[in-house]
Amino acid sequence: MSLPDRTMNGSRGAQASPPPQGIYVPVPTFFAGEGTASYDPVTPPLDTKTQSEHSLFLVRGGIKGLVILGSSGEAIFLRNKERNELISSQRKTLDENGYKDRPIIAGTATQQIDDTVEMIKESKDAGAEYAMVLGPGYFAPSTSQQGIQKWFEAVADRSVLPVMIYHYPGVTNNLHIAPATFEKLAAHPNIVGTKLSHGMIDDQTLIAASPRIDHDHFYVFTGLGQNLLPVLTIGGVAAIDGLAGIFPRIVVRLFRLYNDSAAKGTTKEDIKAMRDLQFRICEGEKIVAKWAVIGIKEALARMWGMGSKTGGRLPLAGGFEGGDEEWKKWEKTFQGLKELEEQFKAEGKEG
């Protein structure tokens, strides 16, 4: 697998390639925790050492690439200098440890086109191969589908990286990008896919299975691991998933089981195994659905000793409310998932 030429730009004349199919993780951004010399309770500095430890944990577990500075990465709380430091440090970590083939997708969450384009350029310079661009949701109630289309086309025309559309109504004032709009945007040579972070399976089907989209050029990723199996069956290629940041082998196993069984002929035993895995994933995803990045960090700290349970920036600093009492609600499920993750690691089939 080769990554895209980092010298390409968003010309209408050249068709970009989508990222390799596989499970990606919207990684959390790790900050220095309490007790460290550089700790600041308002703006704790980046903890790139833990960030690199986590990145290697993921790719060794079969994760295809990293989404840095998405919603789970608390991107809106980072200065541009920190964004670039985060991307460059993880590109270096991957390259130096034999993972040059694992792409970095850099998120943007700005409203202004020129700022978005500039952020993408800086991300490319820092080592990213793709840009995942969040829709402009400030004026969502007044924004037309034509306006959304032209906004993304303007970004893609100017972008030095291939663009993925990040559709997450929960953080964009309920901005809705209609399937018909996706059909138009998918024809742009520098728009190569989407992350759909919503549970509207009808809209996901109308995009992932649309005969009016070239699905060799435009990939559909679900942003919800709890939807992975259904989305694969309707034409989606994989997931960009939060729980995979805690238990990578489990989510990768479902993805591979689906593709392997489809290639050889799916049996009833395959279907049962996939359903069982999807059930286990759905159980774990409840903490992501309720607590988002706070829950991801809590679980990483408790399950694997990575980072700090309270290692966010305000207003997310402090971890989830209830502390140990809240964790007791999740402990049995997550201990079971950890045991399954370790079982898959011992089998040596991922990574």
Automatic annotation (TrEMBL):
An example of a GO molecular function for this protein is:
4-hydroxy-tetrahydrodipicolinate synthase activity
- The protein's superkingdom reads Eukaryota
Q: Where is this region: Disordered?
A: 1-26
Protein name according to UniProt = 4-hydroxy-2-oxoglutarate aldolase, mitochondrial
Recorded source organism is Hortaea werneckii EXF-2000
